[in-house]
Amino acid sequence: MKSIVYLLWHSYESDLNEDEKFIGAYASEEDALLAIERLKDQPGFCYYPDGFDISECKLGQDNWESGFAIMTVIYVRDGKKFSCVTAAKHPDNIYEICSVDEGVSLEFKVGDFVKCKEFTLKPGVTDLLAIEKT
């Protein structure tokens, strides 16, 4: 029995959302490439032809060996303005700040765990604002 399969995925980004689809598992890379040929002109796929990805996967082996985080964007005060930062969502409405733009002096820094509250920066759009360190 062959111990390697080829996984075919399709993904694309639009409006800050990423959409990822698992297409199938194939016995050979050639079979996965043939699947792309069958799908590339179909609705949706034809708009994102570079979104196909084939990865080799060994059977009987973990292919994901660490945890995961739900990433989102939150706002942090920068004096009288607000700056977007990337944060990992934890239980109980706690967020861990993961990255900030260089040269920005924010109320909280990378590695801080913060509580957030909902606020409206633009009419009709609800965002999250870091309000206190936990």
From TrEMBL:
A Pfam match is DUF7336
Q: Which domain of life is it from?
A: Bacteria
Where does the DUF7336 domain lie?
4-67
- Matching InterPro entries, A to Z? DUF7336 (IPR055760)
Organism listed in the record:
Amphritea atlantica
Recorded protein name is: DUF7336 domain-containing protein
